[in-house]
Amino acid sequence: ILNVEQSPQSLHVQEGDSTNFTCSFPSSNFYALHWYRWETAKSPEALFVMTLNGDEKKKGRISATLNTKEGYSYLYIKGSQPEDSATYLCAPPQGGKLIFGQGTELSVKP
Amino acid sequence: GAVVSQHPSRVICKSGTSVKIECRSLDFQATTMFWYRQFPKQSLMLMATSNEGSKATYEQGVEKDKFLINHASLTLSTLTVTSAHPEDSSFYICSAGRGQETQYFGPGTRLLVL
C-alpha cells in the first residue's frame, strides 16, 4: 500500500491570505495524482487529476503543481475565502483504486 | 460532474441489528463502485470494490460476511452491515468511477450503533 502523507493536518488562515499545503507520495511507478476538496456535510469533489511531471493546473483561485521525481504535489489557494474552508485530500492510484492521504483541514476566518 | 446519492444520511440502530446503505449513481452507469469508511481524524479507508454483476473485492482486514455488498444494477450498490456492534459506528461513503480515474462521491452515511 502506498504511503501518502499530507501536511499540515490543519491550517487556520484569515480571509485574503494565500496558503499552500503538500501531498507526498512514493515517486516510483507514478501514474497520476488526484486532488479532492471535501466540504462539511457535502460529497468530496474532484479538483484536479495530475499526470505529468511539472504539471500545473488551475481552477479559479486554486492551483496545483506536481513533481513526480521527488514525489510531491502542492496545492495553492490565492486570497482564501471562507467558502474555501474544507478538507483537501490527495490520492494517487494503486492497483485500480485511489489511496487517500489524511487530508489537510483548512479553516478560513472572515 | 456525475451525481451520486447515498441513503440514509444518518442511522442509529441497536446492537445486533443489520443496516443497509444504498449508493446510487443518478446520471451515469457505474460498473464499479467503491465503499469507504472513515474513522475520526483519519483518512478514507477503502473497504471494498463493488463490481456490477459479480462479487465485490474486499480489502485486507475487511470481513466480507460482516459487510455485505451487492451491486445488482449499473446504478445501485448496497452495503449491509450485518449484526452491527458499537465498533461498527463510523462514517461510510461510496463513490462511483473507474478505478484509477476520477471518482464521484456520495454524501456519506453516519452510522451509530447503540
What can you tell me about this protein's structure?
- The complex is a heterodimer of chains A (110) and B (114).
- Chain A is an all-beta fold.
- Helices cover 0% and strands 53% of the residues of chain A.
- Chain A has strands at 5-7, 10-14, 19-24, 33-38, 45-50, 56-59, 62-67, 72-77, 86-91, 93-94, 97-98, 104-109.
- In chain A, the strands form three sheets. A five-stranded antiparallel β-sheet of chain A has the order 1-3-8-7-6, with no helix packed on it. In chain A, strands 2-12-9-4-5 form a five-stranded mixed β-sheet, with no helix packed on it.
- In chain A, strand 4 and strand 5 form a beta hairpin.
- Chain A is globular, with a radius of gyration of 13 Å.
- The termini of chain A are far apart.
- The mean pLDDT of chain A is 93.
- With 114 residues, chain B is mainly β.
- Helices cover 0% and strands 54% of the residues of chain B.
- In chain B, strands 2, 4, 5, 6, 9, 10 and 11 form a seven-stranded mixed β-sheet that branches. A four-stranded antiparallel β-sheet of chain B has the order 1-3-8-7, with no helix packed on it.
- In chain B, a hairpin with a 5-residue loop joins strand 4 and strand 5.
- Chain B starts with a strand and ends with a strand.
- The relative contact order of chain B is 0.33.
- Classes of the chains: A mainly beta (110), B mainly beta (114).
- Chain A binds chain B through residues 4, 31-32, 34, 36, 41-46, 49, 89, 93, 96-103, and chain B through 1, 4, 34, 36, 42-44, 46, 49, 93, 95, 99-108.
Largest sheet of chain A: 5 strands, antiparallel
Counting copies of identical and different chains, the oligomeric state is heterodimer
* Mean of pLDDT of chain A: 93
Helix content of chain B: under 10%
Q: Using the alpha-carbon principal axes, give the shape of chain A.
A: globular
Strand content of chain B: over 45%
Judging from the principal axes of the Cα atoms, what is the shape of chain B? globular
Number of H- or I-type helical stretches of chain B:
0
